[in-house]
Amino acid sequence: MTWTWFHRLGSPPYVYGLATRLTPWFAWPAALLIIGGLWGGLVLAPPDYQQGDGFRIIYVHAPSAWMSLMVYTTMAIAAAVGLIWRIKVAHAVAASCAPIGASFTFAALVTGALWGQPMWGTYWEWDPRLTSELILLFLYLGYMGLRAGLEDTQRADRASAVLAVVGVVNVPIIHYSVTWWNSLHQAPSVMRLAKPTMAASMLVPLLMMLLGFTLFFGAVLLVRLRGEVLNRERSASWIREIVST
Amino acid sequence: MSRFGSPAAGVVVQAGAITRESTLWAGSHQAPILDAARLALTRDLQLAFRKRGQLVQPLAFFAMVTMLFPLAISPELARLREIAPGVLWAGALLASLLALEFLFRDDAYDGTLEQYALSGQSLTWLMFAKTAAHWLLTGLPLALMAPLAALSLGVSAAAVPGIVASVAVGSVALSLIGSIGAALTLGIKRSGALLSLLTLPLSLPVLIFGARATQLAISGGPLLAPLELLAALVVLGVTLAPLAAAAAVRISLE
Amino acid sequence: MHDERLDVESLHLWRGDRHVLRGVCFSLASGECLQVTGPNGSGKTSLLRTVCGLMYPEEGRVLWEGQDVRGDLRTFHCALAYLGHEPPLKAELSARENLRYWIGVRHRIGAAALEGALERVGASPWCDRLVRTLSAGQRRRVALAGLTLSMVPLWLLDEPTTNLDTEGQQLVGSLIAEQLARGGMVVAAVHHELPASVRDVRHLELAA
User: Fold this and answer.
1) Which of the residues A91, A154, A230, A233 would you substitute to probe the C interface, choosing the one with the greatest number of C C-beta atoms within 10 Å?
2) Is residue B214 domain-shared with residue B162, that is, in the same domain?
3) Which domain holds residue B205?
4) Same domain, B25 and B35
5) Contact: A158, B202; criterion CB under 8 Å
6) What are the strands, taking DSSP E only, across chain A?
7) CB pair distance less than 8 Å for A142 and B194
8) Structural domain contains residue A46
9) Measured by CB atoms within 10 angstroms of the end CB, which terminus of chain B is less buried, N or C?
10) How many domains does one find in chain A?
């Protein structure tokens, strides 16, 4: 029973249909949660004792940073599944994840810089978390660059899968070494991008944003996955049936 | 009995209970993996020495990179001493990247990698042997050259052992990490930039710990802690990198 | 006993959108030779590489001595020798050194065996010159020497007679004939017929 489900997940037409049906289930809740979270965080929540209104960017920054890491892990797991069990749809999932994750990382960096300006007086500080985010962006770019550099889809899938697995193993190591490096060079007036002490009225919108971003990722992933599957299977007969109906 | 045995049917049992089968298909009895790995290493070393001129290139590059900084920043030795760890490690990293392109390229091109994959020996071990040869030809000379560069940046001679140790250990990790990227980008034309993009983020921990160790060597502090962290990275690299490189090589042969 | 068998069951292979191998089936027993022919692009090389295990078929299997080779690829590789289009030789090493490394990685070769193989292919006069200085035909002969030295039951050859003169092609014929007489098997992808010295050749034609 479970294995049939697993095998069906490996079939491109089934996954295409599933992705089409599931997208609204992700998209609408995501929209509601994000709007609700933004309302709660930007309007309803009180200003922070220390940071005033400047902290509000955390409602975009923290979920972005969290998603950038979560998407990379998802990408690596999908890639590993594709690599070990030779399931092409899993590779399509990994390929679809990459640009989304890179965008989240970029958003985290930009919002981090915007947060830094009122906090530190400068748009960039070699804060360990921001530095780790920057390195993560390069990991994403490397993954996408490798895919782009290999013409044969199958080889691109499998090679980038190895890269994703190697990368995900390295992420904790990189994070640790960057934190270690930063702790050696503590500037006296450094203000880390630390979360302010959270009252419930501040925390709830943040959790809503977190969940909303996750569902948003799901929706965008499903849409990209459909496009990816269509592209890969363009010469298959089931595509012609779908186009003609 | 001829070397290839008689074609008659039936099993002929010789003294010592060696069947005709086993002498006939002697090729099915594999050499021990250490012998195979040693041969792979020796071949790479021998080939490198037949093209001696090319060995110098990464070292010359390293020397030139080191030279850029005094010219670009300031000839004051006091200032140079401060940035010396960074200069040495940036130079070592870039020189390593330069040499990495050639780790598998020739073997992929002439079919040697394919024969490795079909040899019945552990491809992981053979990749390890090739990476070891690469380090002996690039990383180790870099580690021995680093003190010269350091001296030119105003570092005192007392720091030399620490510098050699940190660059030597770090460059092992760099070769291992780099072998993964080199294997992944096999056959891609003008893959230098992509190789750097893949390898540099993964090499950053090596850079961080290595530069710290070098810095402590220069300032006379205890460099055991970062050196141990570097060694830990090497151990991790030795266990995982040849495996990943072998997987990447097989993928490139598909 | 001659219990080596190679069975290839309904191999299907796609390269991108191209259906390169469409249900290829054959069986080979001890002493048999299979000649694979077909126009350029029909998948001769892909077939050889799939049988080797370098390429992974979407459907079908390869059986060696009754076992799926995917279960233990390394043992299968110990029993086969593969010669691709280009001889796997390093230009900066001599023929002798090349053989010592190439085959030595697989199994121990004695000096006598090495000399014998070089002698057999007529390479003795120039076996210590760098491969860089050798002609394409001479390199091909060195590759054939490696084949003899590997002493394995299954040979997979991709265009073994390329760059060889008539005498060289006769050499390929006799080497294959000797391998078959020993009880080995040969699969050869060729453009022209194998030399007449190889008798009882089975044929497999791949369509484009």
Assistant:
1) A154
2) yes
3) 31-253
4) no
5) no
6) none
7) yes
8) yes
9) N
10) 1
Same domain as B39, residue B20: no
Tokens of A134: 């920057």
Determine phi and psi for C158, rounding to 5 degrees.
Answer: -105, 110
Residues B135 and B246 in one domain: yes
pLDDT tens for each residue of C106-123 = 999 999 999 999 999 999
Residue C18, min C-alpha distance to chain A (Å): 10
Question: Within an 8 Å CB–CB cutoff, is residue C151 touching chain B?
Answer: yes
Verify that B43 and B25 share a domain, yes or no: no
pLDDT over 60 (residue B19): no
Task: State whether residue A237 sits within 8 Å of chain C by CB.
Answer: no
Q: Looking at the predicted structure, is the pLDDT value of residue A50 above 80?
A: no
**How many domains does the structure of chain B reveal?**
2
Angstrom distance (rounded) from CA A101 to CA A90: 16
B42 and B22 in a common domain = no
φ and ψ of C22, to 5 deg = -115, 85
B125 and B19 co-located in one domain: no
> Is residue C146 within 8 Å of residue C93, measured between CB atoms?
no
- Please indicate whether, in this complex, the C-beta atoms of C56 and A153 are within 8 angstroms of each other: no
Q: Does some domain include residue A9?
A: no
What letters, b where the CB count within 10 A reaches 16 and e where it falls short, cover C61-100?
ebbbeeeebeeebeebbbbbbbbbebbbbbbbbbbbbbbb
CB contact under 8 A, B212 and A174: no
Please check whether residue A181 lies inside any domain of the structure.
yes
Query: Inter-chain contact A152–C56, Cβ cutoff 8 Å?
Result: no
Confidence of residue B23 (pLDDT cuts 50, 70, 90): low
Chain B residues with CB within 8 Å of chain C CB: 3-5, 7, 9, 11, 21, 24-31, 35-36, 39-40, 42-43, 46-47, 50-51, 106, 110-112, 114-122, 126, 250, 253-254
Q: Do residues A167 and A184 lie in contact, with contact meaning Cβ atoms separated by under 8 Å? A: no
CA distance B161 to B156: 11
Provide, as residue numbers in chain B, all residues whose Cβ is less than 8 Å from the Cβ of C75: 120
B contact residues 218-237, partner A, Cβ 8 Å cutoff: 229, 233, 236
Q: How many CB atoms lie within 10 A of CB B10?
A: 7
- Does residue B65 share a domain with residue B112? yes
CA-based nearest distance A174→chain B, Å: 6
pLDDT at C119: 94
Q: Is the pLDDT of residue B127 over 90?
A: yes
C16 vs A contacts (CB less than 8 Å): 152-154
Predicted confidence (pLDDT) at residue B8 exceeds the cutoff of 50: no
- Cα B38 off chain centre by: 15
What does the pLDDT read at residue A41? 82
The domain containing residue A86 runs over which residues? 27-244
